[in-house]
């Protein structure tokens, strides 16, 4: 690729050359879900803004890519909480030591025959204590709880809604749009009110733009600067969406990236790439697969994968 | 069904839909939401998104007021990347705040 001049920092990735994309979503461990829920709860309550945590991450310089996404988020959150004096460095350091000491328990060796019905043993069962960044998040949460700024229940609920409800919403909206052309038109014109009319709470945070795939146009969404994503409609973004290579490459070679996801776009079709970088959040309305006209909304929902809603894939039957 | 628009009104918007605009080519320090690769490139206003708190202020703990007008700008990929490998009708769209745009 051509050298981009005037990059703002390590996060300003659009146009960089990058590796082949690992298209597998590696999911999230418990500590990552907790880190995510803490940050989202605090920004939802306007105790901090996501803009501040973004800026704190960008200010890390080379350290930005030395640590992974959720470790970066954790350190950025701590920086912002110190800046806002919601947490004092001294109490935080003290609390970190206390939390670590709670986990200093004897490790019971497991016998070789110990297994969980053949499933791999989870990280939490390894006998080791939580990692440093999980200790940071626990400490931040406890100090904020003691100030009455947040409750354990709020964090728990946030973890649950990210796992349970958010990811199911996008497919529901798409199935409704496939069934009801009036709904579809209203959705494409101005998505928020019609989605909320379905009983989906967008939490005042997200302005949703739904972009429609047609026989002439294919849409794909990326955020080159961070990981902007309609979380309240689609849950936590997959691992690849936050990866350096996806964020660098989609904007200049969307068709090559699509091929890596197994999606071939015919030559005459326009590829419309959306760099989601400010206050709008994008969801793709895929084309309804042929031969599914008789299916119910509930059946149609099941055809809509998360990848289709980002635009890296299309529902089975129309490939 | 009659719905109220979810977009915040922006009657004072300087640019209108379809108007050609160029992203300001400048590299000031600080938190900005205009990626380096789009600076200096010319496209057309796709829609007026409304007025939003200014992220360049929010990022430092201020309230982001006054709000800034946000647009979606549509670029031809071949205008963004001189070596773009795909067809010349491919499109790139992104949001740009008014103070980052000038009339093309």
Structural class designation of chain A: mainly alpha
Q: What fraction of residues of chain A sit in β-strands?
A: 5-15%
Can you name the CATH architecture of chain B? Roll
Estimated share of beta-strand residues of chain B: 25-35%
Q: How many discrete structural domains of chain B?
A: 1
Fold-level CATH name of the largest domain in chain A: Nitrile Hydratase, Chain A
Short structural summary:
The complex is a heterodimer of chains A (319) and B (104). By secondary structure, chain A is mainly α.
Secondary structure elements and pairings:
The complex is a heterodimer of chains A (319) and B (104).
Chain A: H1 30-44, H2 50-58, H3 69-83, H4 89-102, H5 132-146, H6 152-163, H7 166-179, H8 181-189, H9 191-197, E1 207-212, E2 217-222, H10 231-234, H11 244-249, H12 254-260, E3 270-275, E4 280-285, H13 297-301, H14 306-310
Parallel strand pairs in A: 1-4, 2-3
Helix pairs in contact in A: 1-3, 1-5, 1-6, 2-3, 3-5, 4-5, 7-8, 8-9
Chain B: E1 20-23, E2 42-52, H1 55-58, E3 68-76, H2 77-80, E4 91-97, E5 101-103
Antiparallel strand pairs in B: 1-2, 1-5, 2-3, 3-4
Write a structural description.
The complex is a heterodimer of chains A (319) and B (104). Chain A contains 14 helices and 4 strands. With 319 residues, chain A is mostly helical. In chain A, α3 (69-83) runs parallel beside α5 (132-146) and α8 packs across α9 (191-197). Chain B has one domain (20-103): Roll (SH3 type barrels), CATH 2.30.30.50. Chain B has a 5-stranded antiparallel sheet. Chain B is globular and about 40 Å long. The termini of chain B are far apart. β3 of chain A pairs parallel with β4 of chain B.
Keywords:
heterodimer; A: 319 residues; mainly alpha; Nitrile Hydratase, Chain A; two-stranded parallel sheet; 14 helices; globular; B: 104 residues; mainly beta; SH3 type barrels; five-stranded antiparallel sheet; 2 helices; 8% helix
């Amino acid at each position: 690729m051509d050298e981009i001049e005037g990059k703002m920092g390590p996060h300003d990735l659009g146009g960089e050359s990058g590796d082949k994309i690992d298209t597998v979503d590696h999911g999230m461990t418990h500590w990552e879900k907790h880190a995510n829920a803490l940050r989202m709860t605090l920004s939802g309550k306007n105790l901090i803004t996501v803009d501040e945590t973004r800026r704190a991450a960008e200010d890390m310089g080379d350290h930005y890519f030395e640590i992974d996404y959720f470790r970066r988020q954790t350190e950025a959150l701590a920086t912002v909480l110190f800046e806002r004096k919601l947490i004092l460095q001294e109490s935080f350091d003290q609390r970190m030591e206390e939390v670590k000491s709670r986990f200093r328990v004897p490790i019971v060796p497991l016998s070789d025959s110990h297994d969980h019905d053949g499933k791999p043993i989870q990280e939490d069962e390894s006998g080791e204590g939580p990692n440093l960044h999980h200790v940071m998040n626990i400490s931040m949460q406890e100090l904020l709880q003691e100030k009455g700024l947040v409750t354990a229940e709020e964090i728990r609920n946030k973890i649950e809604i990210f796992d349970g409800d958010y990811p199911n919403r996008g497919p529901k909206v798409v199935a409704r749009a496939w069934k009801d052309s009036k709904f579809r038109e209203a959705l494409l014109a101005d998505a928020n009110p019609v989605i909320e009319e379905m009983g989906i709470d967008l939490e005042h945070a997200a302005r949703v733009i739904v972009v429609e795939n047609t026989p002439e146009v294919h849409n794909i969404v990326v955020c080159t600067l961070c990981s902007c994503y309609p979380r309240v409609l689609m849950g936590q973004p997959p691992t690849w969406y936050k990866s350096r290579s996806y964020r660098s490459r989609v904007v200049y070679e969307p068709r090559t990236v699509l091929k890596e996801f197994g999606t071939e776009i015919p030559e005459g079709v326009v590829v419309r790439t959306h760099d989601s970088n400010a206050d709008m959040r994008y969801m793709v309305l895929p084309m309804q697969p042929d031969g599914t006209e008789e299916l119910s909304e509930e059946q149609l929902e099941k055809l809509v994968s998360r990848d289709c809603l980002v635009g890296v894939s299309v529902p089975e039957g129309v490939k | 069904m009659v719905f109220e628009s979810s977009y915040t009104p922006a009657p004072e918007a300087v640019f209108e839909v379809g108007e050609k605009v160029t992203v300001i080519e400048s590299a000031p320090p600080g938190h900005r939401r205009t990626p380096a690769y789009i600076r200096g490139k010319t496209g057309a206003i796709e829609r007026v998104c409304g007025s939003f708190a200014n992220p360049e202020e929010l990022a430092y703990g201020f309230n982001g007021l006054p709000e800034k007008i946000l647009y979606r700008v549509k670029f031809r990929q071949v205008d963004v990347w001189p070596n773009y490998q795909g067809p010349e009708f491919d499109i790139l769209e992104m949001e740009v705040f008014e103070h980052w745009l000038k009339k093309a």
